[in-house]
Amino acid sequence: MIEQDWIWGFVGGLVIGTAGAVYLLVNGRIMGASGILGGLVDGSGMRTMWERIAFIAGVILAPIPLYPLYKEVDTHITGNLLAIVAAGLLVGIGTRLANGCTSGHGVCGMSRLSLRGIVATVFYILAGGLTMVVFKHVLGVI
Amino acid sequence: MRNLFAFISGALFGGGLFISGMTDTAKVQGWLDVFGDWDPTLAFVMGGAMIPMAIAWWFTQGRKPALGGDFPERPEPRIGRNLVVGSVLFGMGWGLVGLCPGPSLASLTYGGPGHWLFVAAMIAGMLAAVPLRRMLPAT
Q1: How much of chain A exceeds pLDDT 70, in percent?
Q2: Residue numbers of the domain that contains B57
Q3: How many independent structural domains does chain B possess?
Q4: Taking the CB of residue A17, how many other CB atoms lie within 10 A of it?
Q5: Quick check: ipTM above 0.90?
Q6: How far apart are CA A5 and CA A27, in angstroms?
Q7: CA distance to partner chain A, nearest, from residue B135 (Å)
Q8: Which of A66, A80, A84, A114 to mutate to test the interface with B (most CBs of B within 10 A)?
Q9: Range of the structural domain that residue A51 is part of
Q10: Contact B36 A132 (CB under 8 A)
Q11: Looking at the 3D structure of chain A, how many domains does it have?
Q12: Helix axes B113-135, A81-98, angle to 10 degrees
């Protein structure tokens, strides 16, 4: 088994990019996780409901046969339920206001040199880094 | 046919997220934490994902999607308050727990109840965003 995390990261990245390429070239759509889910949640994407459900089913089910590949499947998620709820709300509101997340703005947007994708990515990375500084190094709660 | 390829694409996305380690919140927070024990993995994932995606965008020129319709038009390069405010809020949540929408879904079968709670809160946030979007116009 490959031990180096960055090799797994790079190979996984290639697979993620291939997923985006298939969704774009075959279905003609941008692969953005928050947009695909969000369109179902708020009803704005009901015209393409089954396409969205099929995509999400693939995302959820695909890791199951891959469990043996990875040395551990622990996601190290915090036990702080308040933090989980706050983070989930922030991610839900934020990605829908910004019209995209790491996959839509990050992977799909930046790879076509979209200004909106690049600006969004800069801001969410800065905000994420600052959150780490405040909550980990200053407050010490995560 | 569209649903089949959406499923295939979703499966590649979920599988890629799993093997890249991006459903491990410690790796994501480790990448964001430049003042701690910095973990470079996320940069390799992003870099790897850009390669097939950039080729795909190049390939769209003068063509149509395989199953018909049109490719998404390039959005106007307009940076509105919603893009900036939304991305900042998203980044805060991303840093706080180390999950973004894709990995939060990919990890549902093995991440435990914390991931279900996160996804439930994220869906509630997506619903809350509907009235907020009207208050914060795109320009």
Answers
A1: 96
A2: 2-135
A3: 1
A4: 29
A5: yes
A6: 32
A7: 10
A8: A84
A9: 5-138
A10: yes
A11: 1
A12: 40
